[in-house]
Specification:
By secondary structure, this protein is mainly β. The protein contains no helices and 20 strands.
């Protein structure tokens, strides 16, 4: 279902609603770069005429394809777990990807299967939302300034999103069946909360580095387990260090 509504947040993590926090645990950790860090990618060139109507205070010329922090943390890595016996919850409110400063914010957004994704436009110019979905319905529609475009996503996949009006704009929507999910922050950190006790292997995905799995980590009731995981261009499915 796609609706276009003309009207005048970044989700970092999600999980099924717990019934008793004392019976559940969590995993906190960090995704870091292994070895010598590559040189930062050149800034994106944006001509002043092409950016008319963009909220200029929010314009960023940084290439977000691969962001590695000063301490080696890798941003925009999607971390997911499918916990047995846990019922997925679908948010009642739409999950938002904003077009702000002529960029998609957040760069990577996670949407559970069955949820509504909303493309908002906070800029003062039109944007064109062009999604390259293979399992869900692909869309290619203009969204006016202050407009919104909603779509229910009911199949798991990674969807590239672009704006044909502003060709430097690119982002990703990860539609997932997972019960628990998070996206690493600028420092590579993440947290997966509300997990029943047990052993878990976390699946990870990154637009540039591909996908893989971490080493198993043990979650106990009322406690927070730690997981450090390393990635690199050569070692896309490297293993994390097990922590209890």
């Amino acid at each position: 279902m796609i609706t276009l509504t003309v009207l005048a947040a970044t989700v970092l993590g999600g999980a099924a609603t717990p019934t008793n926090n004392d019976e559940l645990g969590s995993i906190s950790g960090k995704v870091t770069w292994e070895g010598e860090k590559p040189d930062p990618r050149p800034d994106i060139t944006i001509e002043e005429k092409a950016s008319q109507g963009c909220i200029h205070d929010a314009i960023s010329t940084k290439d977000e394809t691969l962001l590695i922090g000063a301490d080696g943390g890798v941003a925009n890595v999607v971390m997911t777990i499918e916990a047995d016996g846990v019922e997925r919850t679908i948010p009642t409110d739409p999950i938002v990807v904003d077009q702000h400063g002529c960029r998609f914010d957040p760069h990577v957004q996670v949407v559970p299967v069955g949820a509504t994704l909303r493309f908002a436009n906070s800029d003062e110019t039109n944007h064109n939302v062009h999604t390259y979905a293979k399992k869900n319905q692909a869309i290619n529609k203009n969204v006016a300034a202050a407009g919104e475009l909603d779509q229910v996503l009911d199949k798991a996949e990674v969807i590239d999103i672009k704006c044909d009006i502003h060709p430097w704009m690119k982002g990703y929507v990860v539609v997932t069946d997972a019960t628990h999910y998070a996206v690493t922050g600028a420092d590579g950190s993440f947290k997966l909360a509300g997990l029943p006790p047990g052993d878990y292997t976390v699946s990870w995905w990154h637009a540039e580095l591909g996908k893989g799995k971490t080493e198993s980590v043990t979650v106990t009731a009322g406690a927070e387990a730690s997981l450090m995981h390393e990635v690199s261009a050569e070692k896309k499915a490297s293993k994390g260090r097990r922590r209890r």
